TrEMBL record:
Protein's gene: rpiA
Entry similarity comment: Belongs to the ribose 5-phosphate isomerase family.
The protein, known as: Ribose-5-phosphate isomerase A
Source organism of this protein record: Paenibacillus kyungheensis
Alphabetically ordered keywords of this record: Isomerase
GO BP of this protein: D-ribose metabolic process; pentose-phosphate shunt, non-oxidative branch
Organism placement in taxonomy: Bacteria, Bacillati, Bacillota, Bacilli, Bacillales
Length: 227
């Protein structure tokens, strides 16, 4: 059972004619982009904004009209993956290196629909290393500061062994916490550190999470009406 594809295709049912759609990043979001592409071929009219160069390229391949950020007003619906989801629908994102654009797009979206398999739903966030986007200048100091929050910070590298750079030209530090006791507090603390651009905690941003199970069942978890 391809649970990523199952969740992604279910979420695309929420895409309607005329919408401005935010396209997420990662292997799960890629299934959603392909499904949207199929619907565009069948006559669906939407405009879209992408959260990474990778997703933009995939969308263009499927002839999904991509609008530059500067021309986008409000986004009706964003569909994106996640690395972990907790019972309050708080998330860890950024495993694919796109957290900053994803967070900007999510913040401009009326609805943020997260698509995931059952394996990513957890009681407490933190088993997945928290990605933190940092500026390259003095990143060694920023990494030292990250360690003071009780994690083991690891500067992300590419498969080739180079330092990984985000689409924004920054570095990513993967912070191994094992468990994050207070995600809301940590989110604010991290974003107060000079040198940190943003972190992969998405607090109260998801409107709903589509969870696909190996059994083929799909569950839609909805956030309290805060968005
Ligand atoms: O930066 C990447 C994104 O936050 C992804 O949505 C996240 O890492 C999940 O990716 P995947 O669907 O490939 O597991």
């Amino acid at each position: 059972m391809n649970i990523k594809k199952l969740a992604a295709e279910k979420a695309v049912d929420w895409v309607e004619d005329g919408m401005m759609v935010g396209l997420g990043t990662g292997s799960t979001a890629a299934y959603a982009i392909e499904k949207i592409g199929e619907r565009v071929k069948q006559g669906l009219h939407i405009r879209a904004v992408a959260t990474s160069v990778q997703s933009e390229n995939l969308a263009r391949k499927w002839s999904i009209p991509i609008i530059p950020f500067a021309e986008v007003g409000e986004i009706d619906l964003t569909i994106d993956g996640a690395d972990e989801v907790d019972p309050d629908l708080n998330l860890i994102k950024g495993g694919g290196g796109a957290l900053l654009r994803e967070k900007i797009v999510a913040a401009r979206s009326r609805q943020v629909m997260i698509i995931t398999g059952e394996n990513k739903v957890v009681q407490k966030l933190g088993a997945f290393p928290l990605p933190v986007e940092v500026v390259t200048f003095a990143h060694e100091w920023t990494i030292e500061k990250l360690a003071s929050f009780g994690c083991k910070p690891v500067l992300r590298q590419t498969k080739e062994g180079d330092v990984f750079k985000t689409d924004n030209g920054n570095y990513t530090v993967d912070c191994h916490f094992d468990v994050i006791e207070d995600a809301v507090r940590l989110h604010h603390q991290l974003n107060n550190v000079p040198g940190i651009v943003d972190n992969g905690l998405f607090i109260h941003m998801a409107s709903a999470v589509v969870v696909a199970y190996e059994s083929g069942i799909i569950e839609v978890l909805r956030a309290p009406s805060r968005r």
